[in-house]
Write a structure and sequence with these properties.
- This protein is an alpha+beta fold and 371 residues long.
- The protein has 3 domains: 167 residues, no CATH class; 91 residues, Roll (SH3 type barrels); 82 residues, 2-Layer Sandwich (Alpha-Beta Plaits), CATH 3.30.70.100.
- It is built from 10 helices and 8 strands.
- A 5-stranded antiparallel beta sheet has the order 4-3-2-1-5.
Length: 371
């Protein structure tokens, strides 16, 4: 087997270089290939331990001088692949010393090179995960990478690492990828037609995660009037928990093509509530304003900023129509706040002697049948 040169050949090149370094030691052992191989493996193990210890110690001292934790985690990630790579170099040298049949020797060498590819594939997968997490947790992070979009970018990076690793493994073993790529293209077209709805949900999920019209914990209102808290945003569907503790699972393709009201959106999560109040004609308008503002300021759910306000909306058919406007800290408090405000408003108007009008009908009987 004569595979084309790939990145894994660097391990073999370093093995040849290290062999020349320890060649004087091997010459003293005489013509004992097995003993020489054992010594090389032990030397490789000691070198791996020494190099990783020295490198991690030096880098760790440098990392202590920084204020962030990224470099410390990177050092911890780097130690295992570096150690195993140095150990693989020793194994390659030992393999060259042992007189195995050519076929077995080639298979063993390719197996060791494949292991090195897998080791570094795991490292880069964890490295990209660390980078994405660090970017998502930064206080000045960009809008595209955040805590709720972190799984998407981690999965994309992992998929890219897997594709590159598979490509390198195929090259190491001398496998022609042309037929595989052609087959994958045909399979991809078939899957695309068979699972077009699933793909639509997947693509819409990516747009939702990146565009972020809502996030987990937001209160949203759908076109169909359902209102609830977003509990999960996946690549296929979004889950909403209503105030009745009923969970709704909605495909992302539907969410992406619907008008959604995000009650938690905007510069802050405060939510304004409106309480309509009617007073009888002849009531003192200033007194009504004072009573309604006193009710709002005395309510525990109502925030002081923005300040509550009262608006005189209309001269109704049988009442003076007012509206009490005030804010609560979170949309989930809307129902409780309206309940307490209505109760306190009714009691306050009764105490102040302000009449709350109600519809009245006068019936005139023009004629009684039979009289």
């Amino acid at each position: 087997m004569n595979p084309p040169p790939v990145a894994a050949d660097a391990v073999e090149a370093q093995a040849e270089h290290l062999r020349w370094v320890i060649q004087p030691i091997l010459d003293r052992l005489g013509d004992h290939p097995v003993l020489q191989a054992v010594v090389v493996v032990l030397v490789g193990l000691l070198v791996a331990l020494l190099v990783t210890w020295l490198l991690s110690t030096i880098l760790h001292r440098l990392a202590k001088k920084t204020d962030f934790d990224f470099d410390d985690q990177l050092i911890r990630l780097l130690r295992p692949p570096l150690f195993y790579t140095l150990l693989l170099i020793g194994l390659l040298i030992a393999l060259n010393l042992i007189e195995l049949p050519e076929a077995w020797n080639d298979i063993a060498r390719l197996a060791l090179k494949s292991i090195s590819i897998l080791i570094w594939a795991v490292f880069f997968s964890r490295f990209f995960r660390l980078v994405v997490r660090s970017l998502a947790e930064r206080p000045d992070r960009a809008g595209l990478i955040s805590l709720h979009t972190m799984p998407l970018f981690v999965n994309l990076a992992s998929a890219l690492v897997i594709v590159i690793a598979v490509y390198l493994l195929f090259n190491v073993w001398g496998i022609d990828m042309t037929a595989w790529l052609a087959s994958a293209g045909v399979v991809g077209i078939a899957v695309g037609f068979a699972a077009k709805d699933t793909l639509a949900n997947f693509i819409s999920g990516i747009f939702i995660l990146t565009d972020a019209p809502y996030k987990i914990g937001d209160y949203i209102v759908l076109d169909s009037s359902e209102r609830g808290e977003v509990t999960h945003i996946g690549v296929r569907s979004t889950r909403i928990l209503t105030r009745d503790d009923v969970e709704l699972t909605i495909p992302n393709s539907v969410m992406g093509n619907s008008k959604i009201i995000n009650e938690s959106g905007g510069p802050y999560t405060k939510y304004r509530i409106r309480v309509p109040v009617g007073a009888a004609y002849g009531s003192d308008i200033d007194q009504i304003r004072r009573v309604l503002l006193g009710v709002a300021k005395g309510n525990n759910d109502v925030v002081a900023t923005p300040a509550p306000r009262v608006r005189f909306r209309a001269l109704g058919a049988s009442s003076l129509d007012f509206e009490l406007l005030c804010w609560v800290n979170d949309p989930r408090l809307r129902g409780r706040a309206i309940d307490s405000l209505l109760e306190q408003t009714y009691k306050a108007l009764n105490r102040e002697g302000i009449e709350i009008p109600f519809a009245k009908r006068d019936i005139y009987i023009k004629e009684i049948p039979g009289n």
